[in-house]
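ESCALATION

Customer reports they have been waiting on this structure for their group meeting. Please prioritize. Original submission:
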Amino acid sequence: MIHWTPRAKFLDNTNNKSELIHLLSSTFRKHNITVEQCDNDADTSIVREALATATDDSVEVRAEDADVLVMLVHHIPSTNHPLFFTTSKGSYDVRRMERCYLLFCHAFTGCDTVSAIAGHGKTTLFDRFCAGDIDEHMDIFLDTQATKDAVIQAGTTIFQYIYHAPGTALG
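Update from on-call: job pushed to the front of the queue and completed.
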């Protein structure tokens, strides 16, 4: 049956939402896909299950929530199998994202206390970081002995990479 109700309105009905979850869960289980249904904090449950599974096998977590990525990076032990975080915009090797780099990306691209970069979010900076383009420049921000001029130059270079314009003057 085709349902013509808008998705948001359909899911606002708790009975519809419960039935959809039940249908998806049972279909996944029939295909031997592990399903963990969360009553409250889904982010924490997703991370807990992903890390538990990663002790035996590689894992890909698909989510659109940067909080899940932050928790994965924070909690990943050094002995796990490969662990990837995939969004609609790309896939990231969680091992590659050290805690200090993740915090830098979070603050540089905007958070509760810092304005966001126009037209670019965390994934843009994550992509540049994962490509290896800006590691050395991020290191300058994390160096307590870096000079003001070095920090300014590193910031400028990172902005140039975000806007796909390395070497272009910002003005």
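Sent to customer with the following note: The longest strand covers residues 83-87.
Escalation resolved.
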